[in-house]
């Protein structure tokens, strides 16, 4: 899936921002769109809240866009964003986030596997004081080998590395308070890691079981190959979280490991060379008889490179923050301060 992020799309502002913003990435879902929107209308009617529904067409090649335009013509709450080509689910979700005006943002899939009735339960959980409520497809209706098993493994790894223990990062149905998404920039497959970003910024994250229906129309666009991409993206966000402002720590650590390997191999090579003088002829070996001298030189060069790369990364980070006057922390709220007008 491409990591290209679409340009931010400005939609006409309503006089009053809605309370809820639903946004749904769409890719070749012509059979599902009308019944899906009917379910969304029914769910929103029971909520008694103002809402907008944003459909992001991610380069569909079927009649999805034409159907979305038809839906928008019949429902003033509907917005449609059509991307120039297929950028991938993360980019489509990013476009939805950028366009949303509501105080609570709710992404979901357009394939009828998520149930809009669960929106009410997500909102109830938010009202308990949480900032992010993630759906958990506890009784997931997908194939075991190609979908459920890789997902379980990936969720365990993500929870362990990210430190936010959720059962189902892949479930699109979630509810976010607007402020936890305002500084999030998504790339690759990183939309599934938003709860981790939010938690690292101090948000309260929880999950609830949600309904999941078997796909009856259309084909799934995602397979087992996506798991590999998820692992690489997870490595990226972990690095950014731990070392974004101090990259010298990780580069320097690898540099010092290489340096110690260089020293140990060099000293051992000298020991072997001097074994006869030390009365240990059985250990004797000239420099040309062992790879240790070459290992010593190579690891020393690598250690210098890692340390210099760390210093270069430090310079880039400082330039980034200082040139943009970008803070390296986030404030939840301020009490007793008078803001400048």
Features of the shown structure:
Spore Coat Polysaccharide Biosynthesis Protein SpsA, Chain A, 9 helices, 2 domains, 341 residues, disordered N terminus, alpha/beta, elongated, seven-stranded mixed sheet, single chain
Descriptive overview:
With 341 residues, this protein is an alpha/beta fold. The chain has two domains: 20-241, Spore Coat Polysaccharide Biosynthesis Protein SpsA, Chain A (Alpha-Beta Complex); 248-323. It is built from nine helices and seven strands; from the N terminus they run βαβαβαβαβαβαβααα. The chain has helices at 33-47, 64-74, 89-99, 118-126, 144-162, 194-200, 226-243, 248-273, 292-324, and strands at 20-26, 51-57, 78-82, 104-107, 132-136, 174-177, 205-209. Strands 3-2-1-4-6-5-7 form a seven-stranded mixed beta sheet, with helices on both faces. Strand 1 (20-26), helix 1 (33-47) and strand 2 form a beta-alpha-beta unit. The protein is elongated. Residues 1-14 have low confidence and may be disordered.
Number of domains: 2
What structural class do the secondary elements suggest?
Answer: alpha/beta
CATH class bucket of the largest domain: Alpha Beta
The helix fraction, in percent, is 40-55%
Intertermini distance: 44 Å
The CATH homology group name of the largest domain: Spore Coat Polysaccharide Biosynthesis Protein SpsA, Chain A
Approximate strand percentage: 5-15%
């Amino acid at each position: 899936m491409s990591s290209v992020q679409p340009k931010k799309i400005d939609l006409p502002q309503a006089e009053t921002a809605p309370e809820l913003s639903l946004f749904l990435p769409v890719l070749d879902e012509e059979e599902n769109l009308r019944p899906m929107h009917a379910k969304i209308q029914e769910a929103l009617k029971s909520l008694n809240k103002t809402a907008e529904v944003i459909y992001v067409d991610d380069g569909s090649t079927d009649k999805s866009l034409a159907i979305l335009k038809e839906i928008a013509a019949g429902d003033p709450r509907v917005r449609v964003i059509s991307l120039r080509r297929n950028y991938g689910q993360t980019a489509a979700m990013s476009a939805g986030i950028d366009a949303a005006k509501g105080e609570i943002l709710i992404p979901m899939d357009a394939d009828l596997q998520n149930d809009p009735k669960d929106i009410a339960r997500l909102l109830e959980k938010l009202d308990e004081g949480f900032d992010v409520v993630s759906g958990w497809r506890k009784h997931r209706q997908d194939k075991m080998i190609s979908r459920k098993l890789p997902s379980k493994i990936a969720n365990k790894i993500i929870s362990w590395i990210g430190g936010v223990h959720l059962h189902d990062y892949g479930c699109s149905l979630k509810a976010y308070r607007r402020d936890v998404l305002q500084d999030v920039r998504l790339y690759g497959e990183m939309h599934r890691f938003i709860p981790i970003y939010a938690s690292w910024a101090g948000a309260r994250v929880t999950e609830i079981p949600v309904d999941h229906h078997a796909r009856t129309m259309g084909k799934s666009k995602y397979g087992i190959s996506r798991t590999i991409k998820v692992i690489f993206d997870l490595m990226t966000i972990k690095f950014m979280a731990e070392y974004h402002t101090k990259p010298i720590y990780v580069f320097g650590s690898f540099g010092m490991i290489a340096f110690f390997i260089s020293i140990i191999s060099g000293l051992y090579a000298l020991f072997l060379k001097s074994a006869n003088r030390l009365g240990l002829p059985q250990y004797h070996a000239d420099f040309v008889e062992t790879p240790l001298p070459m290992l010593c030189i190579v690891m020393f060069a690598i250690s210098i490179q890692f340390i210099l790369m760390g210093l270069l990364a430090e310079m880039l980070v400082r330039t980034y923050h200082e040139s943009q006057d970008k803070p390296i922390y986030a404030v939840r709220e301020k009490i007793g301060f008078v803001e400048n007008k």
